[in-house]
């Protein structure tokens, strides 16, 4: 059965025979319907976006613009600079040209930190793409990440209890043995001292591992204050300058003059910056260049750390934020875990791009949060 022809199509076919006053009335009706539809779409909790050929934005409601960080006047999706992960997902499926629906979950930071589900549907009749964005109250991915950190924290507490006491006992007995050795024959004494030195060294190393594990998984609560991130980065670079110069690392820092001060935990971010700088330094054992820049896009601050080091293998990339995962024999595998947890607690996200032999780029995305203005107390007139 053929689909009914819309009234507007019938009207267009008889345009020349319609009285101007009647035509005006019909146009006013159509405009009212469009305004009503736009009003309804803007009050939906779901985002609705329609893309035409070449990524042209045919329609977007307010929620879609908020979720994707699109400007109201944006005409083209690819040039509107949406969230990188979302843009990559939509770009891949739009370029493939297939008609199969695609769905994925993403964590966003504006208008507030939350998870959304994006579904892409190809509209065959109009050669357009309908994108539906649904807010999620819970996400298995989010729960997995939070559950992993909780389990890790509980594991750290268990390790501290189960290993801490035996380590203390071993240290005490080692000291007693050293005292006993003082009165022994010199030949036997030299042999036992060497053995005790090895045991003492390995005990100290195990103690450091436990303490580092506790440090990585039981970070103190964040203390937010309005801070200048450019200044915080300058301080971190000043702290690392002797080590950078010794390792022949040339730093190119490009701070954004328009980046406003906003609420962060400066001490925690200082630790993040130090870990990322050290990570870049380790990736360039022969020296090289490290580019650091700050910028912001609406309510999101971006901090990029780009090195020209050895890069990360594709098989290792999904695991770099996992505890104790390291490709270096001297690495602890906890530095990037601390970076991940600190940025996550700030409500932010980390994006990593790397190619073996060409370097790595870490991009930190942080929500620009401002202190709430307090209403001054008014003195009562006496």
CATH homologous superfamily title of the largest domain: Histidine kinase-like ATPase, C-terminal domain
* Main sheet record: 5 strands, antiparallel
Cα distance, first to last residue?
Answer: 82 Å
Work out the count of structural domains. 3
Would you tell me the structural class of the helices and strands? alpha+beta
Strand content: 15-25%
The H-and-E topology, N to C, reads as: HHEEHHEEEHHEHEEHEEHEE
Which descriptors apply to this entry?
45% helix, five-stranded mixed sheet, Heat Shock Protein 90, 12 strands, 382 residues, disordered C terminus, five-stranded antiparallel sheet, Beta-Lactamase, Helix Hairpins, alpha+beta
Question: What does this protein structure show overall?
Answer:
It is elongated, with a radius of gyration of 30 Å. It has a 5-stranded antiparallel beta sheet, covered by helices on one side. A 5-stranded mixed beta sheet has the order 7-9-10-12-11, covered by helices on one side. Strands 6-8 form a two-stranded antiparallel sheet. Helices cover 45% and strands 21% of the residues. With 382 residues, it is of the alpha+beta class. It folds into 3 domains: 44-137, Beta-Lactamase, CATH 3.30.450.20; 141-217, Helix Hairpins; 225-367, Heat Shock Protein 90. It is built from 9 helices and 12 strands.
